[in-house]
Amino acid sequence: MSISSTIKSIQDIMRKDVGVDGDAQRIGQLVWMLFLKIYDDRELEWELLNDDYRSPIPESARWRNWAADPEGMTGDELKEFIDTQLFPTLQNIHDYSATPAAYVVRGVFEDAYNYMKSGQLIRQVINKIQDGVDFNKSQERHEFGNLYEQLLRDLQSAGNAGEFYTPRPVTEFMVSMVDPKLDEKVMDPACGTGGFLTCTIEHKRKHYVHTAEDERTLQASIFGVEKKPLPHLLATTNMILHGIEVPSQIRHDNTLSRPLISWGPKERVDCIVANPPFGGMEEDGIESNFPASFRTRETADLFLVLIMHLLKDGGRAAVVLPDGFLFGEGIKSRIKEKLLTECNLHTIVRLPNGVFNPYTGIKTNLLFFTKGSPTRETWFYEHQYPAGVKNYSKTRPMRVEEFAVEQAWWGSAEDGFTARVEGQFAWKVSADDLKARNYNLDCKNPHIGEQISHDPDQLLRDYNQMQADITQLRDQLKAVLAEALERQV
C-alpha cells in the first residue's frame, strides 16, 4: 500500500472515533503520532552511525517500545497509557534529559492532545503507521515529503488552521528572489508549518551545499518561531522531514510578546521570509512592546515593524501583506514611512484574487526590501493568471512556473535593478511620489485602463467574492465588539 493510501485509511479510521472533530484535529492527532514514528526511524539511523548515541526519550515512551508491536497494548490499556504516561512523560522530558533534542520533543508535546477516545481505533491507526511508513527508505522518504505537503494544503479547508499554510509556489518564488546564501541566518518570525524555512533549506542545498561542513552550516542557519501549538508541531516535523536533525531553533513562542528593544544586535539575521498573520488582533498589552508611534493591535503591522528591526544592515526580506496595508493610513502610514526611510523597498509583486483561497479571498502583495538605505524608487509587477484561468481554486491552484516571467524580469540588486524595463504589467514609482501620496502604496497599473467585465460568470464570481469578503469583515467586527463588551463587564 502506498503512503498516500495509508494516510487516507488512517483518516478514515479516525472519522469513526467520537473524540476527533474535524480536519484540524485529525491532522493534529495524526502528526504527533507520525512525529514519534519518524523520530524513531531517525534514531535507528543515528544509532548505527554513533555507538554512543543516547535517546532523549525515556525507554517507555519510545515508539519502538509501546507502539511497534501490532499485538501490543490496545483498548483501555493503550488509551490510559497514552493519556497518563506517554503525554506526561514527553511534556516533562526535560526531567530526563537536558539535551537540545529533548527540548524539541517537549516543545512538540507541551500543547499537543490525544483526541481519540477508542483504544481499539488508536491501535488500528498505530499499526497502519508502523506498517505503512518507513522513513529510512529513501523512496518512501521522498514520497512522504510530498504527502506531507498535501497534509499542509489540507489545512486550508480546516477553518482558521488554513492561515498556517502559504501556497508553495509563493514560498519558492520569494525564497528564490531573496536568495539566502549558505552562511546567512534566515528567520521566519511567524513560521506556521515551516513552508518558507523548508524552501530555504532546499534552496541552500541546491545552490550552496557541497560538503558535510556546508550541511552543518546550513543546519545552524535556520530560525523560526510559531505561536500556535498545531502549526508548531507541523513545523517541527517538517524540519525533521527536511533533514534538520535537531530543529531546536524552531521555537514555540510569540515573537510579538517580547519588547522590541530587547532584540539585541547578536539576534539580527541576514534574511527574513514570512507571511505574518493578517486580519487578526493581538491580545491586550502586546502593542506596549513597541514604540508609541507604532502601537496597534493589528498583527501584520506589528510583525512588519519587528521584521525591520530584526534585519541586519544589508539584510533582505520578502513579506506577504494584504492590500489593506498598502492603502491604510494612520499608524500604517507611519510604518510605511519607516519602511521607505530605513529600507530600500525595491519591489512589490501584486498578486491576483484567489491565491490564498479558500482561507481568504483578500488580495495580497509580496514586498521585497533591503535594510540600510532609503528607497529611491519602487517597482511594481502585476502578476497575471495563466492563459485560460480566471481564478485559482483547489482543483486549479497557482503553479510555481507562473513566476518565470517575474524571474526573467527581476534583474540584479547589485546593479540596482537597472536591467528592469517598464511594460504592460511592470511600472515604477519614485519615493518622492510615494511620500506625496502619504505613503499610499496602492499604486494602480498606469498601462492598463479601467476594465469592466461583462461576462455573466465573472460578474457572478465577483459578486460572490464581494459577499464573502463582507461576511468575513462582519464576523471580524462582531468578534472585536464582543471582546470590547466583555472587557466592560
Brief sketch in words of this structure:
With 489 residues, the protein is α/β, with parallel strands linked by helices.
What does this structure look like?
This protein is α/β, with parallel strands linked by helices and 489 residues long. It has three domains: 131 residues, N6 adenine-specific DNA methyltransferase, N-terminal domain (Ferritin), CATH 1.20.1260; 283 residues, Rossmann fold (3-Layer(aba) Sandwich), CATH 3.40.50; 37 residues. Helix content is 45%, strand content 11%. It has a nine-stranded mixed beta sheet. Helix 4 crosses helix 6 and helix 12 packs parallel to helix 14. The radius of gyration is 24 Å and the shape is globular. The termini are far apart.
How are the SSEs ordered, and which strands pair?
Blueprint: H1 3-14, H2 22-49, H3 63-66, H4 75-91, H5 100-109, H6 119-132, H7 138-154, H8 168-178, E1 186-188, H9 195-207, H10 212-219, E2 222-226, H11 229-241, E3 250-252, E4 269-274, H12 299-310, E5 311-322, H13 323-327, H14 331-342, E6 343-350, E7 364-371, E8 377-382, H15 404-410, E9 426-430, H16 431-436, H17 456-488
Helix pairs in contact: 1-6, 2-11, 4-6, 5-11, 8-9, 12-14
**Overall geometric form:** globular
The top-level CATH class of the largest domain is Alpha Beta
Sheet with the most strands? 9 strands, mixed
The name CATH uses for the topology of the largest domain is Rossmann fold
Strand residues, percent = 5-15%
Radius of gyration, in Å, reads 24 Å
Distinct helical segment count: 17
| Number of DSSP E strands | 9
Mean pLDDT across every amino acid position = 87
Distance between the termini: 57 Å
CATH superfamily descriptor of the largest domain: Vaccinia Virus protein VP39
CATH-defined architecture of the largest domain: 3-Layer(aba) Sandwich
